[in-house]
Amino acid sequence: MLRIESPNERAFRSEVRSWLDRNIPDHLRHLTFRPQPADAMPWYKALSRRGWIAPHWPVSAGGMGATPVEQAILMEELAQAGAPDIPTQGLNHIGPLLIKAGTPEQKAMHLSRIVNGDAIWCQGYSEPNAGSDLASLVTRARIEDDHLVINGHKIWTTWGHHAHWMFALVRTSGKRRDGITFVLIDMATSGITRRPIVTIAGDDEFCEVFFDEVRVPLSNVVGEIGQGWKVATSLLDDERMHLGTPLSVNRALVRLKRLVARLSKQEQARWMARVTEAEIAVETVTAAWLDVSERFEAGVGVENESSYLKILATETVQSILDMALEVAGSDAARCEPVLEGNKRIDVNEMFLQSRRLTIYGGSNEIQRSILATRVLGMGGGRG
Ligand SMILES: Cc1cc2nc3c(=O)[nH]c(=O)nc-3n(C[C@H](O)[C@H](O)[C@H](O)COP(=O)(O)OP(=O)(O)OC[C@H]3O[C@@H](n4cnc5c(N)ncnc54)[C@H](O)[C@@H]3O)c2cc1C
C-alpha cells in the first residue's frame, strides 16, 4: 500500500488487522471459492456484530458510514488476511437502492435484516434470452387485485437457491425499456422452483428460477409500476462500482504472492519485476476507486466511471491470475490444490473463477459500448 495515511487511518488499519487475525476461522482462510451459507453466514454475522459489514452504508441505515479510505483499508486487510467471500447482493445492490428509493415500509422490513445477515438476497435480471440485451426480458407480471402475478424464468441467479429474497425485473406492459417493473419477491412464495447450475469451476454458485403464477403484493414494487428500467439501471451503475473495488485485485495479488513464496530464492528474484508491476496495477485500481468513490459520496454522478472501474479492476484480476498460472508452472494443470504448509492454493480454480468477472454485472464488451456511446458519443446503443 503506497498511500500516506493519517494517524487515525493507521490506527484503524491496525485495529482491523488484529481483529481479523483473531477472528477469521482458520478453515475459512484463503479459499478460492465462496463457502456455502453454513460457513459464509456465521462469518458475515461476525463482521456485522463488529460493525464492519456495511462500511459504505450511512449510519442512519445501520451501516458504518466509513470514508472511502476506511473502506479501502477494510478491503485491503480482508484480502491480506484471506477472509472468505460473502454474499453481496443485499449489501452492495438492493440495500443501497432501498436506502435511496425504497418506501419507509420496505426500508423497515429489509435493511436491518441485510445488515444482520438474517436475509440473503439474489438478483433476478438475466433470462435465457435477455442477458446483455436486458430490455428484451419476457418474464411477465399481471396485476390482479393488490398483487402482481408472475410467470417466467430467470437464469444465472447468484445464490438464488440459498436466497430468502429476490429483487427482480418483470414485464407488466409495453416493449423493451417501457413497461418493466422492479419488484421484491419473497423466495418462499408458492410457485417458485429453483434449479442450481454448476459453474466451470465445479461449484453451484448460481441457479435458474422458474415462476408459475407467483403472487407478490403490490407494496413490494420499488418505484412506479412500469418504471423499473430507471430503477434497475441506477442499481447496475452502483453494482459496477462494487465490482471495481480494491478487494478483488488485492485478493488476486495475495494469491499470486503466496505462489511466488513457494519458489526458491533464485526463482523469486526472477519474478520480482512482474510482481512489482502487479502491485502497481493494484495501486492504480485502488486510486481510481478512491477517486470515483469520493465523487460518488459528494453526490456527483459516476455512471461512466463505474463502467470504467469495472473494466479496469476485472481485467487487472485476470492478468494477475494469468501470471499466477505461469508461476505455478506444471502445478497449474492439476485439478487438485497445491499445498503451502497445510494451506491449500487451488491454482486451477483461481483461474477458472476469474473468467466470470468480465461477464457478470454487464460484460466488459457492453461496458466498452457504454463508454463509446456515453463518453465518446459514438453509435446509438439499444432502445
Ligand atoms: C458468475 C456469474 C454470476 C451472475 N449472476 C447473476 C445474477 O445474480 N443475476 C442476474 O440477473 N444475472 C447474473 N449473471 C448473468 C450476467 O449478467 C450475464 O451473463 C451477462 O449480462 C451476459 O449475458 P448473457 O450471458 O446472456 O450473454 P450474451 O448477452 O448472450 O453475450 C454473449 C457474448 O456476446 C457479447 N455481446 C453481447 N451483445 C453484445 C454487443 N451488443 N456488443 C458487443 N458484444 C456483445 C457479450 O459481451 C458476451 O461476450 C451472472 C453471470 C455470471 C457469469
Please outline the helices and strands.
Blueprint: H1 7-23, H2 37-50, H3 68-80, H4 89-101, H5 104-116, E1 121-124, E2 140-144, E3 147-158, E4 165-171, E5 180-186, E6 192-197, E7 206-217, E8 221-222, H6 228-243, H7 246-260, H8 265-297, H9 303-328, E9 338-340, E10 343-345, H10 347-355, H11 364-374
Parallel strand pairs: 1-4
Antiparallel strand pairs: 2-3, 3-7, 4-5, 5-8, 6-7, 9-10
Helix pairs in contact: 1-3, 3-7, 4-5, 4-6, 6-9, 7-8, 7-9, 8-9, 9-10, 9-11
The site of flavin-adenine dinucleotide has 20 residues, from strand 1, strand 3 and helix 11.
Task: Write a structural description.
The protein is an alpha+beta fold and 383 residues long. Strand 4 and strand 5 form a beta hairpin. It is globular, with a radius of gyration of 21 Å. The model has no long low-confidence stretch (mean pLDDT 93). Bound molecules: flavin-adenine dinucleotide (FAD). Flavin-adenine dinucleotide binds next to strand 1, strand 3 and helix 11.
What's the CATH class label of the largest domain? Answer: Mainly Alpha
CATH architecture of the largest domain: Up-down Bundle
Instruction: Give the overall shape, derived from the CA principal axes.
Output: globular
What fraction strand?
15-25%
Please, what is the CATH homologous superfamily of the largest domain? Butyryl-CoA Dehydrogenase, subunit A, domain 3
How many beta-strand runs?
10
